[in-house]
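Blinded run. Sample ID left blank on purpose so nobody reads anything into the name before looking at the predicted structure. Input follows.
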Amino acid sequence: MNERETLGERLAQQGISRRAFLKFCAAMATMMALPPGSVSAIAAALASAKRPSVIWLSFQECTGCTESLTRSHSPTLESLIFDMISLDYHHTLQAASGHGAEKSREDAMREFFGSYLLLVDGSIPLKDGGIYSTIAGRTNLDLLEEAAKGAAAIVAVGSCAAFGGLPNAQPNPTGAVAVSDIIRDKPIVNISGCPPIPAVITGVLAHYLTFGELPVLDDLGRPKAFYGETIHDRCYRRPFYEQGKFAKTFDDEGARNGWCLYELGCKGPTTHNACATTKWNGGAGFPIEAGHGCLGCSEPKFWDAGSFYAPLPSPTADVASVAQAAAVVGAGAAVALSALDRNKRKRVQQAREKLTVKDLT
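Blinded prediction complete.
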């Protein structure tokens, strides 16, 4: 990697047009819920950003998170995001193996100590000294603690790294835990999901390059821009829920008419993620659109939360009233704190002043 090379220079070398780059920035702004006027500011920040070194550690997992990213719907997006970073170690994707692969990790940690991003997928087994998952003869715990020391920030990719995931499900035979259960002195962002949405991974990396910091997180360490609402909030079947129209089986008239899957165990009302808006496979759809309820895979302990096909407890009050009350109580403080920021953005937009990256933070 050329340390002094900026993303803009890198893209120019590869023949990426300005038009394609701005289209990518517009998509990033939309995903991060930023105003349209922010596109030029994001483009300027990204074009001048130095490509950070990224070390990706895969622990106790199924490789689904990597598969999700590499097989995602938009090759252009992924090629751009890989141009944004210098992926210096990923033992699934890199050509090197054995001692050569481990040397590349050690070289990157030494050369970019204090500034590299550490991406982790998979949980970390602790039982019996962590012997249930090792790489190059070293436990996952050992590798994580070593790599975390020099990391500027850590991105826990997937529900296993974020919350322990399936390996953590009862009886948890390997003593699997999440990254945040071990590392306490570094900023950590959780991108949960089994697997996580690829565009959310790229969105978080783009935000870090644009603003030089991690995005605003919820109480579970997930970026609010993607996990701020439940799947139920944005589900296209929500009107049927409000009307009390529910599919009773997967092949009845209600299912054929696209009615709500609440009574078939859909966990959308309690699951925070962007599946209903970002979707998968080029925006072709998401599980509910394919006729299957949400499993709640981006929430902690989803595997131990009971049957996927048992309905959630029925609401005991009017749905609209409950939602309104929750919004007032839960969002009250946030509204007060963000009012000044919104007013500033509005004033700038009304005066047709140029937004800067600083205005967006």
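Unblinding after everyone has recorded impressions. The beta strands are 53-58, 86-90, 116-121, 124-125, 134-135, 138-139, 151-157, 176-177, 188-191.
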